[in-house]
Design goal:
Layout (H helix, E strand, L loop, with lengths): L6 E7 L2 H8 L8 E7 L17 E7 L7 H15 L5 E3 L3 E4 L2 E11 L2 E8 L17 H5 L5 H20 L3 H11 L6 E5 L5 E9 L5 E4 L5 E4 L3 E4 L4
Parallel strand pairs: 1-2
Antiparallel strand pairs: 2-3, 3-7, 4-5, 5-6, 6-7, 8-9, 8-12, 9-10, 10-11
The structure holds biotin.
């Protein structure tokens, strides 16, 4: 297995992604940084990520042949892992993992030189969230009322990540996308996409490309290919 070729485990770090960055050039591919809690966990778009004890906070150093599919692979691996234990989440493009419409996991990909840091956060056994997150975030424990051992979930996740990473290395992209389609709620749905420059687009999701881009049909009839952004499902009137 490449994933977990070397493991750095901490009770506490600022951010496993930041620690992993400091290892680039010194650590082999597949090196994992794992922590019980983070004091400065990072989310996408410069947001902070609530990371107390009870979650899975980890980062992996990778050198994938195709960087853009990594967050999709991580999302699939998280869903496959939880599915092994009877928990059935869905993926909201590009990287939100939802259970009962609340976010229970996310991934943060950072590219440094020729390496990629894949950060994964799973709100596994977290019992409560700060007031400002309560409406949007939750944990597997809060949604299922079941406690799943962190070590067990972490080990399954490494296995699943390794499996899908090998598919990517062997250029079996169609198999990855088929899996992704099983977990997404977005195909054929009307969505609002907020682009990194805060521009908003509305359209219908047609497909996800082999590079992980969301392909949407705009009301004008134009087809747009979106590589990064945040997506909301449009409410049906
Ligand atoms: C997001 O959905 O905004 C991404 C969240 C990613 C959180 C994980 S927790 C482990 C790793 N270290 C970090 O600082 N962030 C990622």
């Amino acid at each position: 297995m490449i994933i977990g070729s070397k493991i750095y485990r901490f009770d506490e770090v600022d951010s496993t992604n930041e620690y992993a960055k400091s290892l680039i050039g010194k650590a082999p591919e597949g090196t994992i940084v794992l922590a019980d809690r983070q004091t400065a966990g990072k989310g996408r778009f410069g947001r902070s990520w609530y990371s107390p004890e009870g979650g899975i906070w980890m980062s992996v150093i990778l050198r994938p042949p195709q960087m853009s599919l990594m967050s999709i692979i991580a999302g699939i691996a998280i869903c496959e892992t939880l599915s092994c234990y009877g928990v059935l989440p869905v993926i909201k493009w590009p990287n939100d993992i939802l259970l009962n419409k609340k976010k229970i996991a996310g991934t943060l990909v950072e590219i440094v030189d020729d390496a990629l840091i894949l950060g994964i956060g799973i709100n596994l056994n977290i019992r409560s969230f700060p007031e400002e997150l309560k409406d949007i975030a939750s944990s597997v424990f809060l949604e299922t009322k079941k406690h799943f051992g962190e070590k067990m979930i972490y080990q399954t996740l490494c296995r699943e990540l390794d499996y899908f990473y090998m598919l990517l290395k062997n250029n079996q992209v169609s198999h990855i996308l088929t899996k992704w389609r099983n977990y997404t709620t977005m195909l054929g749905r009307d969505v609002i996409v907020v682009l990194p420059d805060n521009k908003m687009l509305t359209g219908r999701v047609l497909e996800i490309s082999n590079e992980g881009a969301l392909i949407i049909l705009l009301p004008t009839g134009k087809v747009e290919r979106i590589l990064a952004g945040e997506c909301q499902l449009k409410l049906v009137k």
